[in-house]
Specification:
Layout lengths: L7 E2 L7 H17 L9 H9 E2 L2 H5 L5 H19 L4 E5 L6 H4 L7 E6 L1 H10 L6 E5 L17 E5 L8 H14 L4 E6 L2 H8 L5 E3 L2 E2 L9 H12 L6 E3 L7 H9 L3 H4 L4 E6 L3 H9 L11
Parallel strand pairs: 1-2, 3-4, 3-6, 4-5, 6-7
Antiparallel strand pairs: 7-11, 8-9, 10-11
């Protein structure tokens, strides 16, 4: 029986805390992909979902489209990046059981790096085998020695789906500063939590997603209007943060969220998705002086 056909009992993975959230996001992505009107086409995700003997609904409740919508937003940005830069390096931080590499067409010149904790990579490799073009790095993203796996002088896109909220600002600041210094000109895309949900996870009772599942602590929550000044301070120079509207495929949220985006007091308190470029002033000046390189600072 092949790996894709085996039935794995969830206890065999011994997942707890943050690594267990890969099953939460898998639940929501696969459930959306199984719908006829789903926003995500992802056969690989569905096959992994079905191969794991786990009571997803008991732990995480009725599936919603949130994680599938999030993946769709990241996919759209990465596709455009690869079309313009066929020699790109795509870095997925905290990749877990994300199957983006199977959803996006990419030429053989693209290098894909999946970085996650050793226990998460061990689970990933039950279902997804690394190869020369798609490499796995079993390290915490905070251990910046993974930088050495990234070839220099190639365009870089860094994905961080469902990751940064699990760290403290004191952990994130040096990571952002180090990435900005090492990957000048790179694009970073990530999602963030609002302060309400962050405080809820940090409360004595915690955030009980269901009666049987308590989410891990999520120390980093932030208001949207605080992103730009905070990240500029962390990185060490002014940066521009671009919001990406969370558009649900159906239901009231499809219409409500775009409406709320126009109400600043509400918008700034919503969780969201954004992207930025690590463009230090010296790099910006050099690009302006050399029009042939203008694509490096142009809007995606």
């Amino acid at each position: 029986m092949s790996t894709s056909q085996q039935q794995y009992h969830s206890q065999a993975f011994n997942l707890t805390d943050v690594p267990e959230t890969m099953l939460w996001t898998l639940h929501n992505r696969a459930s959306e992909a199984l719908r006829n009107d789903g926003c995500l086409h992802d056969p690989k995700c569905v096959s992994i979902y079905r191969a794991i003997d786990y009571d997803y609904v008991r732990s995480f409740g009725k599936p919603d489209g949130s994680h599938a919508v999030r993946s769709q937003l990241f996919d759209k940005k990465v596709r455009r990046f690869i079309r313009k830069r066929p020699h790109a390096v795509i870095i997925n931080l905290g990749d877990g059981l994300e199957t983006q590499q199977f959803r996006i067409y990419h030429p053989e010149t693209v290098l894909w790096l999946s970085i996650d904790l050793p226990e998460a990579i061990a689970v990933r490799e039950r279902f997804i085998s690394p190869d020369a073009q798609h490499r796995h790095i079993a390290k915490s993203v905070l251990d910046t020695s993974w930088f050495t796996a990234v070839p220099k002088d190639r365009p870089v896109f860094i994905n961080a789906q469902g990751l940064f909220m699990y760290f403290t600002p004191e952990q994130l600041q040096p990571l952002f500063r180090a990435m900005a210094e090492r990957f000048q000109g790179a694009t970073l895309m990530f999602d963030y939590l609002n302060t309400y949900l962050s405080r809820r996870t940090m409360s004595p009772r915690g955030w009980m997603k269901t009666a049987h599942y308590q989410t891990p602590l999520m120390p980093w929550g932030i208001r949207r209007n605080e992103l730009q000044p905070t990240l500029s301070e962390w990185i060490g120079y002014p940066i521009t943060v671009h919001n990406v509207t969370f558009l649900f495929p159906r239901g009231i949220r499809r219409y409500l969220i775009p409406l709320l985006e126009h109400i600043p007091p509400v918008r700034d308190r919503m969780p969201g998705v954004c992207w930025l470029r690590f463009n230090p002033p010296v790099l910006i000046n050099r690009v302006i002086e050399s029009p042939s390189n203008s694509v490096e600072v142009s809007e995606e």
